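cache lookup: miss for this entity combination. No prior model stored, computing from scratch. Input as submitted by user K.M.:
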Amino acid sequence: MVPISYYLVLSGILFACGVCGFLIKRNIITIFMSIELMLNGVNLSFVAFAAHWHQLAGQVFVFFVMVVAAAEAAVGLAIIIAVYRTRETLNVDQVNLLKL
Amino acid sequence: MTLLLAQMQAIPQSVDYVRILPELVLSLFGILVMVLDPLVDEGKSQKTLGYIGFIGTITALLSTWYMAQSPGIAFSSIVRVDSFSIFFTFLVIAIAAVVILSSFEYMAVQRIRAGEYYALILFSVVGMALMASAVELVMIFIGLEISSISTYILAGFRRHEASSSESSLKYFLLGSFATAFFLYGVALMFGGTGSTNIDIISQKLQSGNVGLLVYAAMAMMFVGLGFKVAIAPFHIWTPDVYEGAPAPVVGFMSTAPKAAAFAVLLRVVFAINAPGRFWFLWVAAALSMTLGNIGALVQSNVKRLLAYSSIAHAGYLLVAFAMTTPENWAAGISAAMFYTAAYAAMNVGAFAVVSHFANSGERYVNLEDYEGLARSSPLLAATLTIFLLSLIGIPITGGFFAKFYVFSAALRANLVWLTLIGVVNSAIGAYYYLRIIVVMYMRESRKEVPVNPVSFGLATALAVSILATLYLGILPNRILQVAQHSAQDLLPQPPAAAAQIPQPAPTSAH
Amino acid sequence: MNPDLKLWLIPILPLAGAAVNGFFGKKSSRQAVTIVGLFFSGAAFAWALGVAFRFSSLELPYQEYLAHWIRSGNFSADFAFYLDQLSLVMLLVVTGVGFLIHVYSVGYMWDDPGYYRFFSYLNLFMFFMLTLVLANNYLLMFIGWEGVGLASYLLIGFWFTKDSAASAGKKAFIVNRIGDFGFLIGLFLLIQHFGSLTFTQVFDQVKPMSPETAGAGLLTTIGILLIVGACGKSAQIPLYVWLPDAMEGPTPVSALIHAATMVTAGVYMVSRSHVIFERAPIALTIVAVIGTLTAFFAATIGIAQTDIKKVLAYSTVSQLGYMFMACGVGAFSAGIFHLMTHAFFKGLLFLAAGSVIHAVGGEQDMRRMGGLRTKLPWTFWTMTAATLAIAGIPGLAGFFSKDEILWRAYQASWAYWLVGVVTAFITSFYMFRLWFMTFFGEYRGEAAGHGAPAHDTHAGHGHGGVHESPKVMVIPLAILAVLSVIGGYVGVPGSLGGNNHFDHFLGPVFRSTLPPESAQTQMGEKGATEQTTEGTEPKESASKELMFTGISVAAAFLGLALAWLLYYRSPDLPHRIVQRIAGLYDVVCHKYYVDEIYASLIVKPLVNGSTSILWQGVDRKVIDDTVNNAADGARHVSDEVRHMQSGNLRSYAGWVAAGSAVLIAYMIWWGVAR
Amino acid sequence: MNTDHLSPYILTLVTFVPLAGALLLVLLPRRDRDIRIFSLVVSLLAFGLSLHLPVHLHRGQPGFQFEIDKPWISSPNIHYHMGIDGISVWLVVLTTFLTPLCVLISWKSVHDRVKEFFILLLILETALIGVFTSLDLFLFYFFWEATLIPMALLIGIFGHERKVYAAVKFFMYTMIASVFMLAAILWLYAQTHSFDFVTIRDAIANHRVPNFPAAAQWLFLGFFIAFAVKVPLFPFHTWLPDAHVEAPTAGSVLLAGVLLKMGTYGMLRFNLGLFPDQARSNAPWIIALALIGIIYGALVAMVQPNMKKLIAYSSVSHLGFVVLGIFSFTTAGLNGAMFVMLAHGVSTGGLFMLAGVLHERRHTYEISEFGGLASPMPVYAASFLFIVLASVGLPLLNGFVGEFLVLSGAFQAKPLYGVLAATGVIWSACYLLWMFQRVFYGKVTHPVNNAVSDLLGFEKAAIWSCAVAALVMGVAPIMWLAAIDPAVQAALTPFAQLVSKVVVQ
Amino acid sequence: MVSIHLILFLAFGAVAAAGAINLLVQRHPINAALSLIAVMAALAGEYMLLGAEFVAAVQVIVYAGAIMVLFVFVIMLLNAGVEEQTKGSRVAIVFGIPGMLLGSLLIAWVVLKHSGTGDVAVGPLPGAPNVIGQLLFHEFLLPFEVTSILILIAIMGSVVLASKPPVPGSTPAKKVQD
């Protein structure tokens, strides 16, 4: 028997790590990975809550999240490639043409 | 047995398809455009496909009208067709239509791949329409993603431009970041209520026991949605993205996805009756208005300036959300809806002019490029002036009445200070719109700025938006009544007709 | 029942003349202009005479309502006219002298390019003056009051290309405005307490009130305010400064406006309001003091002036002082009497002076005249008559009126009388000084026609040499001369065996409206004089009066003698005297530096203060800068806000994260709170 | 003929005829002459129509006439409610009277973008008339704001050197001020669920407005600030000189002639009409400001080197009289205030036209540039003098009647007010006559001025009609007062009650 | 038994957390990607513990399999090297990190104390493929169908963005006559 809240805390940790990664990582791809990490964290909560409520809807939701994540990944990486083409860099700190 | 019954009713009827007819039509036309793209030769692909897309939107509008005949729940309470959803569906599709019309020559000039462009617009509209009509967080999430992802892509359409891809990147990364927050919020909400269906959630919440989870969930969802509608403090991406994105796209994404997101926000705030939201909305509204206006004061890039102004307008709109007591909700909702419509009309128009004027390679987007525009092309200048006046909130324009209505609703709810902040802001905001008018009319052009002749499509688009702006300003009655009526639809049903409210599972193992 | 006199025609006729000349004069010939100008003023005179003839048959006061003017709430002021003995006298003086001066002007102004303008203005003046005289309420009177101010502004600045003339006109108007300010306030007080400005209504409400001997009350205040107005119009201390400058205008103007008629408006107004003043002894005293001081003060200045017109101007001020003195001691009829005679001889003096100036080609400085006696016989003799009259030589108009004033003054207080007599002496001195310097001795000016100042008309004259003026100018002189000789006999005082017709004629107007017992107690001497109008005069006061008459006559002759000594017998004597008292002479010569004092005390501070403090200071520095700074501040903040947009993605994420943290914290706190 | 059947629609007609004209102008080809003639015809038509109002106005009866009240927007409950009384009728006529003159005076002076100019002018006229005719607060605010843009554009497009600064300053000042009025209006609506002036007035009078007492003062200030800036009252006046100096002649004429009156009219109609108690309690400091405005404006005007600035500051002074009269709460005061509004509209309008004539010939307003002009242009000088005298307040001209009534009213309210304000009589003479002397008298200092031509035909038409109006108003003010007086009495009834209350207590 | 469950949970959780932390500390994207894969695998384990078999499977196949492969592919394509430590943003450190900490602590507190959840046994809610399928094709039919559009968009987008851009569009403004 494991308290569901443990799962939730774990998911929270993952989410927090994702946020932290977004904040501190310089490489765009890594930043994107941190977003995926956040999504994973969310998924865990979904599954945990599904177990709590005995509602499969939660698991289905996870399924949709994965689809979305896949789509985002495709688009996001394409965008990253486009950026790399124009700026020849993956360092997010150097992608700041648009400011003020 | 019961399961079978459940499945029986779960199987969609034909009426269910009627209730998503506009979405269907749009997707069909989107696919059609995609398919035709390779077949039409590069030269005139833009216009052909564009017109197909335009026809698609028109058809969708008609089908919306047809759909309106049979309101109700569809696909086992995934979407609900009521005047609220119809209002927003109609709005976003109309915006798409105007944007498509106004972006022909831009496509031609930018040599943008028309097929994907129009298809993406159509598909994104599908997503927005679903956002407007969905009553299931899953559906809302998917719709949100559809609209967002396609706007990410659209933002990066001028691939050879560093600025464009950068704006696309920023929009994408921050967008997904926010989406993650929203999603976490949904998860917590699911955890707090055991359902992802808005009706059930609201009933659950009204029936009392509101755990802290729900509050946390609300916070998270507000972060996500707040980002989408660009309200402070989550507005920060707007200026960069708008500056970099192609002008017509900005016109599109500053209105349509916002409208849809506001629809969702309305549902979340009022249908769910989100607890403890008041001060957040109050502060966010005040902050957005102020930051937006202040930030815009010294902008010299028109697109960026309008970006800031859109933040400010989101702020005004948010004032309508901060209704305190349920008897004010209807007023607030209808005010917000009307404002969304008015804002869409004027902003699309404004960006249409800007994008036309910016012409090749978005070269002329700075204030000094607008000097003497009134002399070189008076009609264009007059058009832009009308939109700007509407943005200022000068009478006989929709912008004026929208603001007026929002603030009167706010005062109805005794939000005196918020109203004062709002009106003062709208006065200050007048300044930077006025700057554009000033340079157009009161300065003589120093450098030669070529202005293409206005094409038929653009002319139509502008005419439509002007008419809409003035119509909303002079005869707002019809739209107001629709808005007020749909506000009634949105208000949460009393918990009496409670569907099965999920209970937590027995914690013991089996 | 009164016949309809159509009084309104009297002012309207000159107005019509003014309009015709003003609009069409530029095109039409001089003859046409002359005809129009003379016809309309003459018609007014004729009509006035007609009124005079039917006067005896009227029941007085005769009132005539023409039209509504202002109606507000229950206050109303209408175009309505009022005729009694007082206004009749004024009417005749104004129209009569006015007409004569019109005639004179034909000759005097003939060569002036602005001929039509001149007559149009002159007629306009007649219109306003007559309105003033005939008004039946203070507001209508105020129309005339301001209107004559306008006319004098226009006429003083008639030669507007001359800066001094333009400034003089402006000065006159503004100083008058200062007076009118007081007048207006007085009117407001009247409205506030009596709800009306119509003479009859106001006076009927005033009559039951008892005199404010105890201290200054309402009536005193009103009286004083009215005096302020009168001081402005009648050039009394401290507002007399505009009149000497007003001599910049053409001489006929000086004669008509600044001697005969307009400047006497103040006297008229005070006597018109005598009902009020009778009950405000303090105000009356003020009038008397002002009058006395002005009379003396102006006279002293007159001694040292060398500009012939300036001398006359100060003499006018001084004579007006006499009239005020009269009013101040309650001898209103005497004041009006002097007003009339003064109109004759002072008008004449100016016209004669004009004729002299005309003769010597625009020269106004007496030091360059002299010996004109033979050259200008008509002018000389008429001038002589006028001089004798003003000097108070027995038998002429001035003598009777002045003598009566002095006598009444003495009855009020011997101080008035003393100053009055001294002034009389000075008057006769400087008048004869003028007389001698102008007409006797050798001609000191260079040959006329050369180098004459361009401004005053006659440089254009082809003919050289000093010459007598044309008939059209001489005739009015003659008529006025006659008047100033015999004009006094309408009011020979009883002491001289006459029975003061004039006083009797005006009696009904000025008969004390005080309740008798207070008349006895308060008015002391005045009560007695009231009885004199009844004709029951104590013997001893008659002999006393004779004695005083003798004194004043002596004073007059003394002045004559001194003038003869200094300016005829030994003309170099004055210089030595002047060297002896250089300082004093200098001060007098510069009119006691009053203009300079006003300029440095009032005008300069105002202009500089408004410029540096108000405009540049408050307007620019305080208000505008506040506004602009606010705007700049907004821009500054805006710049700060822009720098939130560092363009760095992670910063943006940072903002979002922070914002969401705050939001989460708030929501959870809220959730915990409930 | 019987035109009473016209009465329900006459206001709508008068208000929107110019707008219709403007719309037609948009379609007209850019042939300047036709455009000028057309707009002249339109404005004259509006004038003719507006004359119907005073003619058929039932003078005796207070309250609003020619009313038209049609629901416009169901909720919020907004009505298309128009109506006029003895007060507003004259302001409408004033507007329609001045506009044709503006068209005339701009005949030659505007030669660039003529079409835009006249379109804006006509739109402005409609908005101005609307302000005076609307009885629905929303409608009022609607027109109130609508006047902003055309005016700002007129200044900004057709103005002179620092036109942009002036236009923006004018716009922002008024905009910021008027939003407070908007807030107040909205609050009233939130409480009464009506924008109708009469309804709200009665509701307030009968204490049927929930938690009104708490808000009353703020509402009063909300309205007042908007009006005070428009008037402009003393500390808020600095936009006026700039706006005037930069504005084209027609702009200045309408600005001084009518726009400023919007403020005073608003005070009279709303601050007094809706909040009598607050009006009374706030009167002292308002009057103080007005008095400062009178004297301050005059003194500053006196030292202006620029003709138009001088006239602008004189407006500050004159409008001070109006405010003073309004807040004296006396019949005379209000009558006078109304009359000064009209008189100032005519005479100052005339002054600005004259200044414009000069600017057209010499392209400057600097007084030092002129001098001795009376010789080369006598007719002009005469006309100028006439208008100046009207503005100085010479009896028998329009300026006097109003000032006299205001002063006596103020005096009744408190002698000190009357005395201080009466000094204005002196000041006005000082600055105007001094200016006149410096411009027209003396020798011609700048040889250029010998060549300047005298008044042209259309200029005469414009200016002399002002002069005639000034004369008629001065001689027969009764024609105006007869209509104004009852309306003013009606407006003062609540104060009469107040007084009686005070007496009772 | 019980302890086994807890141990398994802790083990997987430890791996997941470690992977997440590692993602943060790793300088090279490839390592980051690999650690992310580790996290996902561990999460799949957790799903199994919660009885979400289908989800676990999809997690491994789609996430670890498809998506991460895509990541790695892109990293290779752009041969992204070790990320340099640029001082780009103070805000992220000054506001972001504290905000993140505060937020996550609050959330953690909430889910620990106030989630109202109890203990859970292994596989309390068997998410077998057929059941999930039932749901997907009945209750969640519409979202399921709509995801196809999402995928379509994704494909189109990647085609548009990732394909070689045309010659930089300095083409003269092409008039559009109507």
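stored under new cache key. Residues 154 and 249 of chain B are 6 Å apart (CA to CA).
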